[in-house]
Amino acid sequence: MQGAARPICPTRAVMTACLPNPSERRFAPEGSLGRRVDFRDRRALEEAMFSGVILEGSCLMCDCTTMRLTVGMGGGLRGVIPREEACFAPDGGEIKDIAVITRVGKPVQFKILSLGENERGEITAVCSRRAAQEECWREYVSKLAPGDIIPARVTHLEPFGAFCDVGAGLMSLLTVDRVSVSRVSHPSDRFVPGEQIRAVVSAVTDGGRIYLSHRELLGTWAENAALFSPGQTVAGIVRSTEDYGVFVELMPNLAGLAEVTEGALPGHSCSVYIKSILPERMKVKLVIVDMGPPAGIAPCRYFIDGEATRHLDRWLYSPPGAKKTVETVFCGDAAD
Question: How far is CA 149 from CA 46, 62, 200, 246, 305, in A?
Answer without folding.
Answer: 35, 35, 4, 33, 9
